[in-house]
């Protein structure tokens, strides 16, 4: 195809091929164990597949309602209320989305205008900034404090001004594996009280908070819930990242604005999967067991690499474990990650890619959402480095 000869002014000039694609390709080329990407190497429940099949066979194959299948929205309202105490109305305050990424993009598009500022904590999951920029907004970065990746609320306070429109939080946090505390929610409440600031709370790992520490959902605090979009993802909760199914909950006036964009971006999401999830999520153990399942994997992985030269604090949530390699090498984290993949046959993500200025802390992110045998093989390699 000949090149388009006209003028294209990129809306996202800084966006290129992500390290995620680079590392995955490299892992395949080098036949390396891939702990770089955030998805399981095991299958989802057979029962869930059967349910999807059932609804497909039964002919539930046409457009779902724009807001999502009501049975699923009702089930989500029940789960949120039982777990965090806030009641969302399934009709007007919950929408099913094509993944959390679409929910996040849509919420930002619905709210952010030219010149609005959005506070983003770094290291940050990579989909926030492009959405803010395309909407004409300005990301204002706050670096999470090391070594525990906690939030310095005084630093946040200093950055708030009349342009601040939104604060994005993410707990349990990708890539650090940290979780926020009840006190963090109180600080956020204090900071936003009597302001027009909205919160986008990315809680896709809500069912993966470990060591009996409760997940601090925005929905535990009614003041905050009242100014927030809460996002979660079935991809993470039921091991189906490839299905791109998620949801967003928010007060009605925020949800109305959200749906104005949502209906023209995707209109509605996969019908048979929504019916299947509505049934599947009725069984509480299908989400309440997740934290035990992943805590076991974290404990296995960290036990097996205890004698390695990497240093680490076991993560508090998510399925990511950070490892510090400063006693092994001085290399830049991207160079070290590439060398590990090529020479040692194990792939991870260098943490610097989650900072807009590519801050290098000699940390790599490893995903432990893998079969035990994969984790055992990975640990054997890591212990030899
Ligand atoms: C913090 C965070 N938010 C959002 C997403 C996107 O979720 P989904 O696959 O449902 O779009 C991910 C996926 O890795 C994530 O880690």
Question: Globular, elongated, flat, extended or rod-shaped: what is the shape?
Answer: globular
Distance between the termini: 46 Å
Biggest sheet descriptor: 7 strands, mixed
CATH class of the largest domain: Alpha Beta
Core attributes:
385 residues, alpha/beta, Aspartate Aminotransferase, domain 1, Aspartate Aminotransferase, domain 2, seven-stranded mixed β-sheet, 39% helix, globular, binds pyridoxal-5'-phosphate
Verbal overview:
This protein has two domains: 19-44 and 288-384, Aspartate Aminotransferase, domain 1, CATH 3.90.1150.10; 46-284, 3-Layer(aba) Sandwich (Aspartate Aminotransferase, domain 2). The protein is globular, with a radius of gyration of 21 Å. It has 15 helices and twelve strands. Strand 3 (117-122), helix 5 (128-134) and strand 4 (138-143) form a beta-alpha-beta unit. The chain is an alpha/beta fold and 385 residues long. Bound molecules: pyridoxal-5'-phosphate (PLP). Pyridoxal-5'-phosphate (PLP) binds at residues 38, 99-101, 125, 170, 174, 202, 204, 233, 235, 241, 244, 246. Pyridoxal-5'-phosphate (PLP) binds next to helix 4.
